[in-house]
Request: fold
Amino acid sequence: MRPDSIGALVVLAALVVAGVVSSSSAFTPTGNPREVPVQPVDQNASNGLVGAMDALRIGKLAASWDELRAMPRPGQLGGPRSDLGWRGLIDFADGRRAFRQVFEPAQGLGPGFNERACANCHSHPNTGGGGPDMGVSVATVAPPDDPRDTVGTQKYAIAGHKAQQIAATTPRRRTPPLYGIGLLDEVPDDALKAHADPNDRDKDGISGVLNERGHPAGGKRPARFGHKCNEPNLLRFIGAALFGEMGVTNRASRAAPKDKDKIKDPEAPVGYVARVDAFVRGLAPPPRGPIGPAERRGEKTFQVLGCTGCHKPRVGHVTGAYTDMLVHDLGTAVSDGLYDGKAGPTEWRTPALWGLRHRKKYLHDERAASLDTVLAFHGGEAAETAGRYRKLGKRDAADLKAFLDSL
Reply:
């Protein structure tokens, strides 16, 4: 947004500070498959000054001014998508504030939790990224909405409750970076189904599966987020994280919005969840690093090896993510013994590779410290591709690494 436009809106923002304009209008989810939150019409002020000020996001602008000035620019890592309009930029900044909000027990934190704010886990290399250590324990629990559902353990507890005892052998999963995830949420289900081949009809050894999960409205929907595709869309993914990582109940989560603390459920209002959604949905995909001859040769090698059988350069209308968002069997070397819906212990969602150059460790539990080690763990459907990689000459291997390091 241009500085002069911001300045004009700031003048109007004084009305909010003075209490003349309401800034309390909330977002509510719609019933469409992607469940993108939309702003409701304020029936009490749709034609007057208050309605006009709400439409201009004046309250959010006043409250998010410092956030707008401090956050990365559009298109940069951790910044908003370049296609957001000025309203979207204000919603993004306001959502970034919500993402950084620190919860206290009086606001619904607990009874068990891992962190007090979304940004405390998603902080590397900046707000919206992955975790600094990315080691998050998980355990198998069967909540009422789904008998085969993997949910995270919670390391801490509020006063009056006991923290979970986590064994050293408990499987671990990294905190995923969120850059560009809103674009992946926009990919139609039909585009994912087009890549699915559960019976390997084309006999290429790759048989991606579209996992399905239970939904609060009833029935099941194709899932696309989570290490084993356990959430159907971004809104549910955010709701699950609020509940699982901070113990904050909300209506966006597939789990029932109830817990055992003394705060009335649901603890997070729809408006708060939607503010977080506006930030996460608006995060720009990671920009590519420098691309030269070696990177271009490496990309061709990536294709020749067969890596694009799962890490597709294009899914739906989104390019550069290098994922098909399906679940694949990668063999016993990466088994965690856990299930998520249709996804078994050896099956994992194809992770997006954009932003790969910002990671120091790899795989779902960060057991791999180099890309060579990553390939060593690729079995099952990826066994033939991994075998071809091991036969590469030094130059081709170096080019492939240069390509991956540019993502």
User: Anything to note?
Assistant: The first helix runs from residue 3 to 17. DSSP finds 13 helices and 13 strands in the chain.
